[in-house]
Structure formats: C-alpha cells, structure tokens
Amino acid sequence: MGPRRTSPNQLSRFKSSATSLAWIKIADHHESFPATGNSQKRCNSLLVALVGFAGGALVGPYLTAQHQTAKDTTDRRVAAYKKFFAAQAKLLQSGSPNLTEENKKKLTDEYEQETKEAKFEIGVFGSPEVIQALVNWFDKKDRTDLKDLWKEDAKIYQAMRGEIFGTGGKIDDADLYYLLFGYRPAKEQK
Hints:
mainly alpha
C-alpha cells in the first residue's frame, strides 16, 4: 500500500496557519518516498510536520490574544477620548451668548464633572504622550498667560491621533485647531 495523498480540501484548511508550509511540503514530496524506502527522510518529514503543527497551535492563539488585547486597549482609549471631547464641547457651548446663565452654569458643571471622569480614564488607559500633553495643557491653562494655550491643546489631539493612527495621522496644528474650534490661532509675531 502506497503513501496516502493529501486532498486539496485538506490542504486549504491549513493555508492560514503556521503549519501550512510543512503540510504543503509533505504533500508535494510525499510520492518521492517509496513506501518501503528511506525511513530517515520520512522521519525528518514527519518531524518537520510535527514541529510546524505544534508551532502553529501555540503561536496562533498567542498572536490572536495579543491582537485582541491591543484592540481592547485602543477601544478603551477611544471611549475615554470621546468622553473628553464631549466635555470640551460642553465647555465651548457654555460660552454661547444665546444661553441663559442657568444653562451656562449647567453646561460648565457638566464639563467639569465629565472632564474629571475622562482625565481619570485617560490616566489609566492613555499613552504616555497623551497623558503628558494633557498635563501640560492643564498646567498652562491654570496660569495667567494663555497666549500659546492653543498649541498645548493641539498637542493633546495630535497625541491622540498618533496613538490611534500611528505616525501617518499627523496634520498641521493650526488646521486641526481650526477644524475643532472654528477659528485659526493668531500667527506668532517675529
């Protein structure tokens, strides 16, 4: 009785795993080993297949778990950033001249509460760059000189974009600020 041939359907099951190369190699070279022939080559082929199968069985779930952890972290960061954005929008809205003092106070109170919650979540889930950008902004905001506060503000959003999109997510600070807040900061005088 000759060697058993691997069907194309069986091979297609293994194409996405780390074992596919070993299975394809064995299937391609299976007929080159006589049924009663060179046992050393057979043993080596089986060893390669076993190592490939074991490696695929161990590495695949590990990589899947790593990917899921990274996705979960990104999802938590985005949720915290959305909370921060919602608070910032309330602060901007509270400055509207069309609101009553009662509505302005309500929006300001909501801004403060939501910002506290968002800062906590960002402190836990945010990257060091985002955390540092927020620290710099809140530090500068509490000073009397607010001249360049927009730059610190833009750094927060750039850090968030960089964290989510990587280095390809950077855009001009002034353009980003214009998009977010509807006006361009004054250019520095030299």
